[in-house]
């Protein structure tokens, strides 16, 4: 699989211009033989929405996603796009994957919401999602999700070969793409693609450094602070090769000894709860 990440500022609050930008990027990606194009978190609208969220939220079956599907179909490239998804009275921070024929094939709602503002604005998702694209098993996370090792490990144990992470990370937190993301790839021996935003939205300045990391934890494509279209080859045979070289973190696990219920207990605020019960 050939994967592309578009690291971009996009157009804050302007869905039409972002769709125009997506069409241009999809055309460029298609000309380079890209199978899957990944955009940042909440690409359609921008991230720092506040109370404007209500008027900008989109249905997964609405006009904006229909236009994304047409772009994917026109250029025969799969697209993973982030947007605020309205579902009845609730709004989710979501990513939809549309395949190269224009069909919606996966939909993920952010599970780990970051900070009080996200928790005020969005409902949290509760399902892990994977989809096969160009013969690769692709797991979906969004931004803060990847900072939880349990999230990446859960998808890896379900067979994910690549995890894509649409992101909107403000500075000064470059350690996440430069240190945490390579660690997640290495400790699960899978590919991880982290698609961050750049530019400014109000008081937020985004720090870029999008990356595509291989199963050894090595970045095969790495951006800085500027607009970039990163392209990298995702070769699943490298996963087996990395795990066979010396060890496999997944197969060498001893989950019977980890006592996850006790670990959860240690974080409990219930003074009457006794670990081991």
SSE layout:
Blueprint: E1 2-7, H1 15-31, E2 36-38, H2 53-56, H3 63-75, E3 78-87, E4 90-98, E5 104-109, H4 115-121, E6 130-133, E7 136-140, H5 149-157, E8 162-166, H6 175-188, E9 191-195, E10 198-201, E11 204-207, E12 211-213, E13 219-222, E14 228-233, H7 237-245, H8 260-266
Parallel strand pairs: 1-2, 2-3, 7-8, 8-9
Antiparallel strand pairs: 1-14, 3-4, 4-5, 6-7, 9-12, 10-11, 12-13
Radius of gyration: 19 Å
Low-pLDDT parts are: none
Helix content: 25-40%
Q: Could you tell me the number of beta strands?
A: 14
The H-and-E topology, N to C, reads as EHEHHEEEHEEHEHEEEEEEHH
What is the strand content?
Answer: 25-35%
Mean pLDDT: 95
* Main sheet overview: 6 strands, mixed
Question: Going across the major beta sheet, what is the strand order?
Answer: 5-4-3-2-1-14
Number of helices: 8
- Distance from N terminus to C terminus (CA atoms, Å) equals 47 Å
- Estimated structural class: alpha/beta
Task: Specify the overall morphology.
Answer: globular
């Amino acid at each position: 699989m050939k994967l592309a990440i578009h690291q971009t500022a996009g157009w804050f609050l302007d869905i039409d211009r972002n769709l125009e930008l997506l069409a241009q990027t999809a055309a460029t990606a298609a000309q380079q033989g890209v199978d899957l194009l990944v955009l940042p978190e909440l690409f359609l609208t921008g991230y720092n929405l506040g109370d404007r969220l209500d008027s900008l939220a989109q249905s997964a079956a609405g006009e904006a996603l229909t236009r994304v599907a047409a772009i994917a179909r026109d250029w025969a490239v799969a697209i993973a796009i982030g947007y605020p998804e309205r579902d009845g009275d609730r709004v989710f921070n979501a990513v939809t994957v549309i395949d190269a024929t224009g069909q919606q094939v996966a939909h993920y709602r952010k599970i780990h919401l970051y900070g009080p503002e996200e928790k005020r604005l969005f409902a949290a998702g509760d399902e892990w999602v994977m989809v096969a694209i160009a013969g690769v098993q692709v797991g979906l996370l969004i931004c803060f999700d990847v900072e939880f090792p349990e999230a990446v490990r859960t998808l890896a144990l379900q067979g994910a070969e690549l995890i894509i992470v649409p992101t909107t990370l403000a500075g000064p937190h470059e350690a996440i793409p430069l240190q945490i993301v390579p660690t997640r790839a290495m400790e699960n021996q899978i590919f991880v693609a982290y698609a961050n935003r750049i530019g400014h939205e109000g008081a937020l300045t985004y720090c870029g450094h999008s990356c595509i990391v291989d199963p050894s934890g090595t970045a095969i494509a790495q951006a800085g602070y500027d607009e970039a279209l990163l392209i990298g080859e995702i070769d699943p045979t490298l996963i087996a090769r990395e795990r066979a070289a010396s060890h496999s973190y997944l197969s060498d696990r001893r989950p019977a000894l980890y006592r996850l219920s006790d670990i959860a207990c240690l974080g409990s605020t219930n003074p009457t709860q006794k670990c081991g019960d």
